[in-house]
């Protein structure tokens, strides 16, 4: 299982959240198996955390024209989008 975090800035958090919630069918193409966790922070920053059984499928879907169109429609600032694969762990 791989965890992937996507961080970006949006123009309007309300618009982003409303749009994000409509992408259930798109997210199914990502190979995810768990609910998507997401949140919003200061300066219109948003974050989503995905868990996938197939990282290659996930990354391919993230790079798809459908995903890019969804992000633009939701009002993301496209050059602010960052994708992080959480592939390290620290025991405490």
Helix count equals 4
Beta-strand share of residues: 25-35%
End-to-end gap: 20 Å
- Order of helices and strands, N to C? EHHEEHHE
CATH class: Alpha Beta
Structural class: alpha+beta
Query: Which stretches of 5+ consecutive residues score pLDDT under 50?
Result: none
How does the overall form come out from the CA principal axes?
globular
Produce a short descriptive summary.
This protein is an alpha+beta fold and 92 residues long. The chain has 4 helices and 4 strands. 33% of the residues lie in helices and 27% in strands.
Characterise this structure:
- This protein is an alpha+beta fold.
- The chain has a single domain, classed as Alpha-Beta Plaits (2-Layer Sandwich), CATH 3.30.70.100.
- It is built from four helices and four strands; from the N terminus they run βααββααβ.
- It has helices at residues 13-20, 24-28, 55-62, 65-73; strands at residues 2-9, 37-40, 45-52, 82-86.
- Strands 2-3-1-4 form a four-stranded antiparallel β-sheet, with no helix packed on it.
- A hairpin with a 4-residue loop joins strand 2 and strand 3 (45-52).
- The longest helix is centred in the C-terminal third of the chain and has 9 residues, at 65-73.
- The two termini are 20 Å apart.
- The model has no long low-confidence stretch (mean pLDDT 96).
């Amino acid at each position: 299982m791989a965890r992937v975090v996507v961080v970006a800035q949006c123009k309007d958090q309300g618009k982003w959240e409303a749009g994000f919630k409509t992408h259930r069918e798109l997210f199914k193409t990502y190979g995810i198996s768990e609910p998507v966790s997401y949140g919003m922070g200061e300066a219109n920053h948003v974050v989503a955390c995905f868990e996938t059984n197939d990282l290659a499928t996930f990354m391919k879907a993230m790079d798809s024209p459908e995903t890019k169109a969804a992000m633009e429609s939701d009002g993301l600032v496209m050059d602010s989008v960052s994708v992080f694969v959480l592939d390290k762990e620290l025991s405490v």
